[in-house]
Amino acid sequence: MNTLFKQTLTAGILSTMIAGAAFAAPDEAPPAFVKKVADGLIMRLKADHAKLQNNPAAVKAIVRQNLDPYVDAPAFARIVMGTYATNQYSTAAQRAKFEANFRETLIENYGSAFAKFTNQTYTIRPYKATGSKNPVVTIDFNNNGEKIPVSFQLADKGSQWKIRNINVSGIDLGLQFRNQFTATVKRNGGNLDKAIANFKPDAEAAVEKKK
Questions:
Q1: What is the pLDDT of residue 90?
Q2: What CA–CA distance (Å, rounded) separates 62 from 43?
Q3: DSSP string covering 171-196, please?
Q4: 98-132: b or e for each residue (b if 16 or more CB lie within 10 Å)?
Q5: Three-state secondary-structure class, residue 204
Q6: More reliable by pLDDT, 202 or 82
Q7: Domain range for residue 145?
Q8: Average pLDDT of the chain?
Q9: Do 41 and 87 meet the contact criterion of CB atoms below 8 Å apart?
Q10: The domain that contains 23 carries what CATH number?
Q11: Which residues, including other chains, have CB under 8 Å from residue 119's CB and lie 6 or more apart?
């Protein structure tokens, strides 16, 4: 897989996992919700491609404006923290700090990859409703004839859909980041505050793990 494209794609995907409330209508079909998010992002990337090359602030603005509103950040943070997200291992303040640090790290480390997005396209696989509160919609991103499957797991919040986890080419990103965070806690001697401050999720390593 082309490393540059994979880095760009992974950046885009991960950035969809980094923020607050969504505004999808409760009767909106899951594929329509995912298409709305993807189309909005791609449209902005293509429209602003030239000025994004050397403007990190503009890239961050696109992330926040086009992706932040559609994600369940607290749920993603809990997935990544794993058992450390429970009262037995962490305080509410520590969990809030983890979520904030994790979100900013993703924006800083992967947001710049958006500027490299040019002509990639995607197709949505046929979707069959199951009545699940966590439906999965799969997109195939196309890069020079190569298809990269990306599955979005959604959460039914009663009045809206939110994205709660992502699977890229068979790799569960939430689980891989959980493994990375667990390793970070161990490297810091079990000191959770230090682990939270030092945690740097590595998306490229997570996706490459399958190889």
A1: 96
A2: 11
A3: EEHHHHHHHHHHHHHHHTTT-HHHHH
A4: bbebbbeebbebbbbbbbbbeebebeeeeeeeeee
A5: helix
A6: 82
A7: 3-208
A8: 80
A9: no
A10: 3.10.450.710
A11: none
